[in-house]
Amino acid sequence: MRLATLTSGGDCPGLNAVIRSIVRTANTEYGSTVVGYQDGWVGLLEDRRVDLYDDEEVDRILLRGGTILGTGRLHPDKFKAGIDTVKNNLQDAGIDALIPIGGEGTLKGAKWLADNGVPVVGVPKTIDNDVSGTDYTFGFDTAVSVATDAIDRLHTTAESHDRVMIVEVMGRNVGWIALHAGMAGGAHYTVIPEVPFNIEEITKAMQRRFQLGEKYGIIVVAEGAVPEEGTMEMSVGDVDQFGHTTFTGIGQQIGDEIKRRIGQDVRTTVLGHIQRGGTPTAYDRVLATRYGAHAARAAHEQTFGSCVALNGEDIVTITLEEAIGDLKVVPVQRYENARSLFG
Ligand code: F6P
């Protein structure tokens, strides 16, 4: 068989581990070859591809962050308009199955291709951990570790200066990184997009700490957090070509408001893309490797229109339909249960 793979959407630690695992499994278990399209769907449309050999070079990418294939985003309209080109390119290159690695948007593209007769097996990725139908996506554990390390460090400097520290983490629509990093880092308040925040309540939680003689407070805020309606004036961002509202710095805005209300010294740290860069954790390397191997096997077994997923301890295949279902948000009750740790 001749397989093709590509990485699309925002990058995340573990993409290279998947690529390596696809190449090694295809080669050693089936004697198959693999090509990689560059820069996501754009490279497939423009027929830019490289052969991926089961050699030392590919072997060594296990620990490398980013993606050796490059990545990109393609507007859904351009994607749909290019489906015939994609089919022709795959056919001309003699590709028997395509394994796209990406988040919700990428998997939607995979589904459109599958609906048009392209043999596809998807691999879910995102640091946000919001893909439907899978317990965890690789990249998430690394992002949480990076954020937790940052929070650990902020505890000591916050305490030295009697400050409130705001840590803004990634998470446009979901608060998994904020919830887990906040819990692991012992944050005194965590704000997630799923549950609109009340600035009065956050301020009171910080005030209480200082009144009780605590010297500092740490607040973790997901970048997509929103206030309860009518409780706080917010800057409004522009809307980009993908319909995403650009962020206006929610961490800074919450920090400014707390400072204004209680006069405490406040500093804000925006972790941004640091959470997405660098080497994957051991957990993410293992998950990514298992996903890649399972996807290569599913392609050889012709389980097309599918997507690999983690179900408990097991790697399984689900349908692409399931993978592009509703985003996996933090259940409100799960957040409410974490509240007892605030303050
Ligand atoms: O991968 C998802 C994500 O990490 C979001 O949490 C974040 O909003 C987005 O990517 C930012 O990506 P970029 O800056 O590459 O557009």
TrEMBL record:
Binding-site list for ATP: G10, R73, L74, G103, E104, G105, T106
Residues with site note (Important for substrate specificity): G105
Keyword terms: ATP-binding, Cytoplasm, Glycolysis, Kinase, Magnesium, Metal-binding, Nucleotide-binding, Transferase
Residues bound to substrate: T126, I127, D128, R163, M170, G171, R172, E223, R267, H273, I274, Q275, R276
Active-site residues per Swiss-Prot or TrEMBL entry: D128 (proton acceptor)
Subunit field text: Homodimer or homotetramer.
Involved pathway(s): Carbohydrate degradation; glycolysis; D-glyceraldehyde 3-phosphate and glycerone phosphate from D-glucose: step 3/4
Keyword Magnesium included in the entry's annotation: yes
Binding site for Mg(2+): E104
Coiled coil: none
Principal cellular location given in the protein's record: cytoplasm
Domain Phosphofructokinase stretches: 2-298
Highest taxon, organism lineage: Bacteria
Catalytic activity: beta-D-fructose 6-phosphate + ATP = beta-D-fructose 1,6-bisphosphate + ADP + H(+)
SUPFAM superfamilies: Phosphofructokinase
Gene Ontology cellular component terms for the protein in this record: 6-phosphofructokinase complex
Family as reported in the entry's similarity comment: Belongs to the phosphofructokinase type A (PFKA) family. Mixed-substrate PFK group III subfamily.
Enzyme class: transferase
GO biological process, one term: fructose 6-phosphate metabolic process
EC id: 2.7.1.11
Protein name: ATP-dependent 6-phosphofructokinase
Role of this protein: Catalyzes the phosphorylation of D-fructose 6-phosphate to fructose 1,6-bisphosphate by ATP, the first committing step of glycolysis.
